[in-house]
């Protein structure tokens, strides 16, 4: 049970070019989703139990506002709409700092407008960009489209962000960040890059014990292509 007023967060990333078009985005993956799409990129983020971290909206907004060089924050998951009221608070505080707010949702924009979950329409009103709809495995797209399947739509509600995205047409499918714990991969192509890196490590004549942390984590947005091999990362393997 998550205490009232706290966001249930699966993961954070301080900057990824692969979250959404238009530059570098702070990534916030919310914990919990009820849609259970076949081929979900992040099944470990479906449980509504606390698995990652809890945070007050002000704390999350302060973290985002303290980052440098980002276009804004992009919420993913899990399902951001399940925590719409708290996420909306964060969105408002982030926008006060002149930053954009984007979100992925497994619900369609029509469902969100009709408040499919309490507070969804309110959160929608704060978004500059929504990537909507469930992941449909039969309509899966290759990495690099900022969406997992062709039924999903990039819906811009802010012309300035749309122009910015249009001015940087390069589609980034994987962003690799080096951390003290290893590499953090984000984006729809993260799984493929992780697979290549792991195969390279396994090909080494004498793998070192700490090779297991060379790829610390892969984070992808909802509804991207399914697991490539049995060599997944801990996040996707976590049971719900
Ligand atoms: S793909 Fe997205 S909407 Fe579908 S089950 Fe996974 S987290 Fe939920």
Structural features:
240 residues, binds iron/sulfur cluster, 22% strand, single chain, 7-stranded mixed sheet, 10 strands, 7 helices, 3-stranded mixed sheet, alpha/beta, TIM Barrel, disordered C terminus
What would a concise description of this structure say?
The chain is an alpha/beta fold and 240 residues long. The protein has a single domain (1-240), classed as TIM Barrel, CATH 3.20.20.
SSE topology:
Blueprint: E1 7-16, E2 25-30, E3 53-55, H1 57-65, E4 72-76, H2 84-96, E5 100-104, H3 109-113, H4 120-124, E6 129-132, E7 153-156, H5 159-167, E8 175-179, E9 182-186, H6 190-203, E10 215-219, H7 234-237
Parallel strand pairs: 2-4, 4-5, 5-6, 9-10
Antiparallel strand pairs: 1-2, 1-3, 6-7, 8-9
The protein binds iron/sulfur cluster.
